[in-house]
Design goal:
209 residues, alpha/beta, Rossmann fold, 54% helix, binds thymidine-5'-diphosphate
Length: 209
Amino acid sequence: MEGKLITLEGIDGSGKSTVARELVSRLRELVPERRWVLTAEPTQGEVGEVLRARLKGQEEEEPVSHMEELFLFMADHADHLKRTIIPSLREGAAVISDRYADSTVAYQGITLRGIVPDPLRWIQSLLKPWNVVPARTLFFAIDPALALERISSREGREKFERLDFLKEVDENFELLVSEEKERFKRIDASLGPDDVSEIAVKAVLDLIR
Ligand code: TYD
């Protein structure tokens, strides 16, 4: 069986992590002959843990270097490819990743504005020679104001969760979607989690079967 990489992308509060778990458990029932691997970026690996700790930290605690952060995300991505993505695909698994390189392009494409010219294109060019491009990417599209409302009640807010920032990240994602219409499947994430899961399951089955 041929391995397949499917990624889930969207701004914070789009609900993709909730849907990811539901999606994989439904797919395991529907297509038991496949091995389904659920993974995520940032990963649980060494660099991923450094990133998570940083993202949870208060901004006052230590000044953030956006450039350092970009390369931490890149290092975590390299580790993810080596440890999980490539071996799983070689074994013929269907791999579902909750965030992947498009998050780096969309998020660090904003944080690095004013630091390098045209950061989005620059990050894309850094990734291109070595990235494994997903067969399909489900983009969970949502109004940033609604997304922020969903997450504002959660504990442990992360530093990227501000409206002006999420709007800009959303614009970057929409640009990526418009440029790769074959790879991206845009899903209306303002629907409830059940409807969104249903649509996501269909989108994956379309690709797998
Ligand atoms: P994630 O763990 O998906 O957040 P949550 O589970 O809280 O929804 O990602 C953490 C944050 O890291 C999120 O705000 C998006 C950001 N991020 C980047 O800025 N660049 C990246 O390359 C990745 C993978 C995530």
